Amino acid sequence: MKIGVPKEIKNNESRVGMTPAGVFELTKNNHIVFVQSTAGDGSGFFDEDYRNVGAIIVKSIEEVYSLSEMIIKVKEPIAEEYPQIKPHHILFTYFHFASSEELTVAMLKSKAVCIAYETVEDTDGSLPLLTPMSEVAGRMAIQQGAKYLEKPIKGRGVLLGGVPGVPPGRVLVLGAGVVGVQAAKMAAGLGAHVTILDTNMKRLRYVNDVMPSHVVTEFSSEYNIRQHIKDHDLIIGGVLIKGSKAPKLITREMLKEMRPGTVIVDVAVDQGGCFETTVPTTHENPTYIIDDVIHYCVANMPGAVPYTSTMALTNVTLPYVLLLANLGWENACENDKSLAKGLNIVHGKCVYKEIIDAFDWSENHLVAEI
Ligand SMILES: NC(=O)c1ccc[n+]([C@@H]2O[C@H](COP(=O)([O-])OP(=O)(O)OC[C@H]3O[C@@H](n4cnc5c(N)ncnc54)[C@H](O)[C@@H]3O)[C@@H](O)[C@H]2O)c1
């Protein structure tokens, strides 16, 4: 198969869909790989590294798309990429369709096959291609939150770990999934007091078993959230309802209950955000303030640490890329049910129910059973 790796053009996105190690595996399997020049620079992989393992370096994004059958990316295509996407293309990347009707309609119109990293699902319900980025984002949420708590950037002026004689900062984590657990682990490592909430008791039992005693678990209810936002310095939103928009756990009116300078980091922003006041931001301009509460809502947090993120992502995507390249998308999805769950749009039809629900679309209109 002919496989294309374009350079990411979303704001401040320096990750790349494939490392030279991935190209090596594909060319060993007799596939042809086109890599856009400088696509890997931001992650520390240069044209020469790709050329050395058999990639063909092409200059423009137009060449990558026109020469390739399958496109391997990191982020969803942005508007200027839409015209490049044709019905014969397979796109394998993050899409997060439920949070953008515009993107969903554009991909339906393209008639391409869109396989979303974030909905590839193992038999135990875990999301193997979301996990590494959630691990990165969960850890980064504390690093960023700690920084924005500093007074010169309008935070409360709290040092998360405290010092001898002064209590540590308090971190509230909403969701005890991958993001939540990694955030709790980092915050606990800094010495902060951590409260972590979830509706899933199994997750809370797990967290309770593995975390130190200054990480406290509680059931996630509106009442509990309302109590905790009053005295926590840093609030991390890490909830997920698979394929759907995130539930709004913190409303605009609740911001008034927080202390001035509280920092809220909505990691779930890519699914619409779990705070009512969430608006997606970029690494260039990551924060804004409403009612004296600092909002950090960067939709591609791992993009800021591309070296770590590219390696972590491609470690898990490569086996699926090989399967798709070796068998074609239909046979690959037939043989691997986890991969089949990644099918979101197939030749103009939306085949993932939660996306249709997210937009209140009629099933007859857009769903095809495959
Ligand atoms: N901004 C970024 O750069 C970035 C990067 C990676 C992941 N994410 C996003 O972070 C979010 C979390 O990802 P994850 O991998 O941790 O998901 P996950 O499925 O591992 O965890 C989500 C958790 O949320 C819990 N939950 C659901 N409803 C809840 C509620 N009302 N109250 C409390 N908890 C609730 C679930 O029980 C689950 O444990 C996703 O939206 C994901 O797309 C964003």
Fill in the keyword field for this structure.
single chain, 370 residues, alpha/beta, Rossmann fold, 2 domains, 8-stranded mixed beta sheet, 7-stranded mixed beta sheet, globular, binds nicotinamide-adenine-dinucleotide
Second-tier CATH architecture of the largest domain: 3-Layer(aba) Sandwich
CATH homologous superfamily title of the largest domain: NAD(P)-binding Rossmann-like Domain
What is CATH's topology name of the largest domain?
Answer: Rossmann fold
Amount of beta strand: 15-25%
Count of spatially separate domains: 2
Radius of gyration of CA atoms, rounded to a whole number = 21 Å
Q: Major sheet, described briefly? A: 8 strands, mixed
Mean pLDDT: 95
Characterize the overall form: globular
Low-confidence stretches: none
CATH class division of the largest domain: Alpha Beta
The ligands found in this model are: nicotinamide-adenine-dinucleotide
What is the CA-CA span between the terminal residues? 23 Å
Organism: Flavobacterium aureirubrum
EC number: 1.4.1.1
Keywords: NAD, Oxidoreductase
Domain Alanine dehydrogenase/pyridine nucleotide transhydrogenase NAD(H)-binding: 149-297
